[in-house]
Amino acid sequence: MNLKRRAAIVRAIVAKDLREFSRDRLWMVLTPIMLIFYVGIFWLLPNSVDETITVGIYGRGLDAVAEEALQSDAVATEQALRVVPFESADALEAAVVDGTEVEGDDGKNTVPVGIAFPDDLTAALAAGEPATVTIYVDAAVPAEVQTAMSAFVREATYAMAGMDLPVTQPQQQLVVIGEDRAGNQVSPQDRLRPLLAIMILLVESMALAGLVAVEIQSRTAQAVVVTPATTGDLLTAKGVTGTLLAFSQTVLLLLLIGAFGFEPLLLLVAVLLGAVMMAGVGMLAGSAGRDFMTTIFISVVFIVPLAVPAIAALFPGVASSWVQLLPTYGFIETIVGVTAYGWSWSDSSVYLLISAAWCVVIFAAGWFILRRRVEAL
Amino acid sequence: MNLRIAWQVLLKDLRLGPRSPILLWAIIFPVVGTLLVQIVFGSLFAPQPRLGIVDESGSEVAFAMAEVDGIELTLVETEDGLTQLVGDNALDAGLVLPTGFDARVQAGERPPLQFFVGGESLASNRLILAVTTLDLIRSVEGSTPPVEVEVVATGDPVLPMSSRMMPLLVLFALLIAGVFVPAFSIVQERESGTLTALLVTPARGVDVLAAKAVMGMVLAFLMTLVTLWINDALGGQPTALLLSVAIGAVILAEVGLLFGSAAKNAKVLFTLMKSVNILLFAPVVFYIFPDWPQWIAQLFPTYYIINPIFEIAVQDAALADIAPQLVVAVVISLALIPAVVVMSRRMTSQMAAA
């Protein structure tokens, strides 16, 4: 039989599978609900990282001195501190207690931390007399920020008093290892993107598993292969159906969450690899051919480890070596790299190759096991 | 209802239960869920500053840093290892304290500060780590600060994200054990025909449903307590907690019976759950976002199950504090009984007609 005829058979089986999918109330309800849910969650998350601590400062006559102390060698405060000056200690305390928004240089902000320097501070420092600085903090402010603010005040007054640091600082204020992303951090939205993509892919692998399981249970797979269609046609059709379902919905999700801003073709290739991989997983899970609950349960056994690299991407730092061995790692890294770090083809090539290798392994495993199952019917 | 028959059905379910994947889920979920929540939500939204120190000679700075609240400290063996960890963004900053560092600081020699930060560390974390490090070096130096610092905390502390996720975990435990287990058990029996077979014996639909409900209630009660226990959130009011969990388990087992008797097969049940669960879970979102108007959460029935448990387990409330909410929960539970009876009769007649 020629290739054209084979393709027509595969197309017919794919069309039948997609029709069956569209009649399946479970997936037809679940798919849009999940899409809406994921897109909603994504847009609810902040699209930037607030790495600045807003501090209200009151210090009569200390403007210049405080400014100098803030810019001292002790610590680099740019981007880390947003200073809002106050006219009185009472106003500062009220702003912290009430949590009201106060107009600053870069718009309105609440002031969770307020530092009130005493009016006679300069004289007290000059005379070496004791003075007390009051820090008002909202109870929601984390302990480490409270500790750091106390330390910051002490260090600022050491500087005001003209006392040297107990150590010698390097030439620049901070030695930064790697690309300095201060002010340009990866946002929670960027971190969540791969997890959402993999969740859609995994659910679609469950849908394919369901379709395959039903065919095995009802023995329609056996019926199909006594027609001119071969087992190979059937398996190709299942692979195409699974890939189509996973690819189209993941692309739709990525469109809805604005992931195609940079290197869209690269992202499409990564998603395609992920979709092929999930088609393989769907064939593996579905080949058990048991009841619906068992199919779901077997799918979950695959889903949990495959979702781990996406969960790891939520955290800062390089994933552990065992996470890097998981099949979805390359695919996830490519999505993170392209959408959050602006990776190009050359940056992603290694991860794409890893993904492609895993695709071959998983799809071949799915093909082999499902083939054996169909032939054993 | 025939208690003896219901008991026999329950014993059968207990015997065959371990074969069910749903039962397995109900048991492993508290552990997996807690792990995920503690890892993901414990650090995703409020990442603590992470500092690595190479301490070559037992510096006081390293000891003092270990005592600072809210800073995650890692002791690293070598400077190269530390640079690697900071470069990989596994740490926000690194500090090398060479041999004799403390003595040199105390002698006023102003030794070089080997402090470096990772490019992906937050600016605020860099500031926190740098200034805290300097402050600790100052205390090693023995200098007296020019000022005293008085910290005045205002307002109510906001619970950490991991505590705010507790209602979600508890509701999941209640839902999987209380709703999923009886509902899937009923549907599986319907699909495999054993329920129809059972109904040609002296057992009636209500006996079977009672057994399923008891199974769900007991499991939901136990797994909720396990969830609270592994999250170290049993609170200080055991009687009030047990009562709240028991009422919650009863209500969710009733919901499980409703789902199970309404669904013709597992797929319909799965669809039903996926659709209705959004409503059941709605109140837990308001714990996660305390700034949202909290009165909205009170519009959802599951609020009256979750809130008493949350108040006792996390906020240390007493029975009197949550009594009005428990009364509402009991009313909900009583209101569900007629619905369960109607659905049970409908299911029995459907099976008889089939």
Task: Give a nutshell description of this structure.
Chain A is built from 14 helices and 7 strands. Chain A is α/β, with parallel strands linked by helices and 377 residues long. In chain B, helix 8 packs antiparallel against helix 10.
Structural summary, described in words:
The complex is a heterodimer of chains A (377) and B (354). Chain A has 377 residues and is an alpha/beta fold. Chain A folds into two domains: 3-45 and 192-375, no CATH class; 53-160, D-Maltodextrin-Binding Protein, domain 2 (3-Layer(aba) Sandwich), CATH 3.40.190. Chain A is built from 14 helices and seven strands. Chain A has helices spanning 3-23, 25-44, 63-70, 89-98, 121-127, 143-160, 188-217, 220-225, 231-256, 264-286, 292-312, 321-324, 329-341, 345-375, and strands at residues 53-58, 81-85, 101-104, 107-110, 113-116, 132-138, 175-177. In chain A, the strands form two sheets. A four-stranded mixed sheet of chain A has the order 2-1-5-6, with helices on both faces. Chain A has a two-stranded antiparallel ribbon with strand order 3-4. The model of chain A has no long low-confidence stretch (mean pLDDT 82). By secondary structure, chain B is an alpha/beta fold. Chain B has two domains: 3-42 and 160-353, no CATH class; 47-141, abc type-2 transporter like domain (abc type-2 transporter like fold, 3-Layer(aba) Sandwich), CATH 3.40.1710. Chain B has helices at 3-16, 21-43, 60-67, 79-87, 101-106, 123-141, 161-164, 166-192, 194-199, 205-230, 238-262, 266-288, 303-313, 319-353; strands at 50-55, 72-75, 93-97, 114-118, 148-154. Chain B has a four-stranded mixed sheet with strand order 2-1-3-4, with helices on both faces. In chain B, strand 1, helix 3 (60-67) and strand 2 form a beta-alpha-beta unit. Chains A and B meet through helix 2, helix 4, helix 5, strand 6 and helix 6 of A and helix 2, helix 4, strand 4, helix 6 and strand 5 of B.
